[in-house]
Amino acid sequence: MPPLPPPAVQTSGLTRHYGSLAALSQLDLTVQKGDLFGFIGSNGAGKTTTLRILATFLLPSAGSARVLGYDIVEQADNVRRLIGYMPDFFGVYRDMEVTEYLDFFGACYKIPTAQRERTVQDVIELVGLSEKKGALIGALSRGMQQRLGLARVLVHDPQLLLLDEPASGLDPRARIEVMAILQELQRLGKTIIISSHILSELQNLCNRVAIIEKGKMIYTGPVQGVRDQFEAGRVFWVKVADAHERAMDLLRARPEIAGAEWKDGRIRAVLRDREADPGCVAETLVRGGLKLVGLEEEELGLEEVFLRVTRGETQ
Ligand SMILES: Nc1ncnc2c1ncn2[C@@H]1O[C@H](COP(=O)(O)OP(=O)(O)O)[C@@H](O)[C@H]1O
Ligand SMILES: [Mg+2]
Prior knowledge:
Blueprint: E1 9-18, E2 21-27, E3 30-31, E4 36-40, H1 47-54, E5 62-67, E6 70-71, H2 76-82, E7 83-86, H3 98-108, H4 113-126, H5 142-154, E8 160-163, H6 172-187, E9 191-196, H7 199-202, E10 208-213, E11 216-221, H8 223-230, E12 235-240, H9 244-253, E13 257-263, E14 266-271, H10 279-287, E15 292-297, H11 302-310
Helix pairs in contact: 3-4, 4-5
């Protein structure tokens, strides 16, 4: 059998210290070719540090990383040719026109003049800036500037895009437009890593995600798995006609129920784990001779799960 092609990104024990602060600890991250990969963590989690290391702008303190098979330290030049890195803040040349700016970056990448014009037109079209070709960059909206940032990292036709919070600070519509461009790029065969501090922003976009917190990986896998891994027992809101105290005592006595408390005029009952039979809530109360007048399951959004995870509130 031929050897498997290398993953787009593979890190092993990747660690970075700033003085005594461990911004990144022993990170093992794998991103496959063709992934639209979400890299998620709250502010200060270590996302930018990781992306800067992968982009060869920052050296790791320990551990290693390969991008499309190339070592980010030993073979940094090869890595640079294959990636397009869009930092969280990039300076824009306000007095340059869109086309001029992209042509300038094309020249930096030594794309021959004859080919450059075509390439620049292609990327402008791809990110939907055709109508703004001749506009001064300083006059573009924030959303348009983000698109220009994307166009810029596409000029040298990289295989892997490292995008550091490209949707932050955009209004919802501009955000959706950026996401649509990313989906198109994935269809064109690019591998994309996009970071965000908002899990729900990426849940419909990415096929896989990694969640980091304080420099450590706490989850990697499909988006849906986040809920399965971190959501503790299901929560039910219960209303009984009277005898609330007795109802709570009966519920607490059941092994499947982790707790029952009085909240907002109702009883909040939490099952011990995902496997516990939710029927036990109603059964306990009815058997105890209580009059059940309301029973409703709490729907926990993915974002709420994420916030609990990153606040360390799980289990
Ligand atoms: N140049 C630096 N010097 C010192 N500390 C830094 C530096 N850059 C980042 N940090 C710290 O490292 C941690 C991770 O930061 P960062 O990678 O920027 O996280 P994120 O991008 O997820 O918000 C934070 O605690 C941050 O304050
Ligand atoms: Mg950051």
